[in-house]
Amino acid sequence: MDLFRNRHFHALFFGSLFTNIGDSVYGALAGAAGADRISRIFPFGKILAAGFLLSGLSWLFMILLCNVSIRYVYTLMLVSELSFGAINVLFSAIFQQLPDEQMLGRVNTINVSLLSLAMPAGSLIGGVMAKITSVQLTMSFFGIGCLSWHCFIC
């Protein structure tokens, strides 16, 4: 956020950026709502690969285009969240279909526990990394990580 704060000093802009982060939640919800329709057309692996590709490219282009117009950042954030919304729903569906019915509760508990541990750890690592290096570099690592997952899946 320092990247944007340094370029745009007034509170209205900074508030609108955080409002858009709230709007990206709507993107995730829209992606989740469309996941069922998409999964009927494409196989899970292709959706997963395309989702990580779109999200990774969105994050990298956000960095490149943030100096041009903040509208690009808003749009690319929405695209990224649409992808992740669909991926989250499909992962949940897969983890409910793959294990035996007797193991479903255990698998779900392990999955939710690992995700709950990973989120604050990722936030901590990202925050420290942004403080040590720069916000742009940290965001680019996230984008590169998404693209790496895309290559790993394909």
Description:
It is a single chain. The protein is mainly α. It has one domain (about 1-154). Helices cover about 90% and strands about 0% of the residues. It is built from 6 helices and no strands. The chain has helices spanning about 1-5, 10-40, 45-65, 70-95, 105-130, 135-154. Helix 2 runs parallel beside helix 4 (about 70-95). The chain is globular and about 50 Å long. The relative contact order is 0.15.
- Report the total helices: 6
Low-confidence stretches: none
How much helicity do the residues have?
Answer: over 70%
**Coarse shape:** globular
Rg, Å, rounded = 17 Å
Elements, N to C (H/E): HHHHHH
Q: Oligomeric form of this entry? A: single chain
Number of domains: 1
Estimate what percentage of residues fall within beta strands. under 5%
Distance between the termini: 33 Å
Record field, number of beta strands: 0
Largest sheet: none
Structural class: mainly alpha
What does the average pLDDT come to? Answer: 81
Essential attributes:
about 150 residues, mainly alpha, 6 helices, globular
Helix-strand layout with pairing:
Layout: H1 2-7, H2 11-41, H3 44-65, H4 70-97, H5 104-132, H6 135-153
Helix pairs in contact: 2-4, 3-4, 3-6, 5-6
In short:
With 154 residues, the chain is mostly helical.
